[in-house]
Amino acid sequence: MRTTYAIGIGSNRRGRHGSPRAEVTAAIEALHDLVVAAPIIETPPLGPSHRRFANSVAIIVSDDPPPALLRRLKAIERDFGRRRGRRWGARVIDLDILLWSHGSWSSPGLTVPHIGLRERRFVLAPLAAIAPRWRDPVTARSIRQLAASVDRPRPRH
């Protein structure tokens, strides 16, 4: 069954392709059935890492169900030299399933939409550039609305 996915792509460490921006470009090229990729943006790190990230989002079509696509993305990460390490650490490439056109998916090790989707500007901004009307199946809000909400100042208590 053909389905559409939004894939988050990030890097903040040099790899065999070069700079983090070059790693993201190479990862986009490694994705099969690419429809469109967002421009690459640079963002500050989250967590303990001190290196800036290069981030993008790609829209792909695939016959793979979410677990099979996740295995394929993890194989690409390994091929790029990614090793499992500490959470939020530096990484040569990070590929995440953000959304899929059939709504929500939950299984051990995989939740779609991605659990951090609604709070992460570095994902929502590129996604809004290429799929602003795609709706989050959990909140029914469009990606454009979610992106605007993360940029809005929060009230202090």
UniProtKB/TrEMBL annotation:
Coiled coil region boundaries: none
Highest rank taxon of the organism: Bacteria
EC numbers, comma separated: 2.7.6.3
Keyword match Metal-binding: no
MF terms in GO: 2-amino-4-hydroxy-6-hydroxymethyldihydropteridine diphosphokinase activity; ATP binding; kinase activity
PROSITE patterns xref list: HPPK (PS00794)
Keyword Magnesium: no
Keywords, comma-separated and alphabetical: ATP-binding, Folate biosynthesis, Kinase, Nucleotide-binding, Transferase
Domain 7,8-dihydro-6-hydroxymethylpterin-pyrophosphokinase: 87-98
Function: Catalyzes the transfer of pyrophosphate from adenosine triphosphate (ATP) to 6-hydroxymethyl-7,8-dihydropterin, an enzymatic step in folate biosynthesis pathway.
Family of this protein: Belongs to the HPPK family.
NCBIfam families (UniProt xref): folK (TIGR01498)
Protein name as it appears in the record: 2-amino-4-hydroxy-6-hydroxymethyldihydropteridine pyrophosphokinase
Organism field: Sphingomonas jinjuensis
Lineage per the UniProt record: Bacteria, Pseudomonadati, Pseudomonadota, Alphaproteobacteria, Sphingomonadales
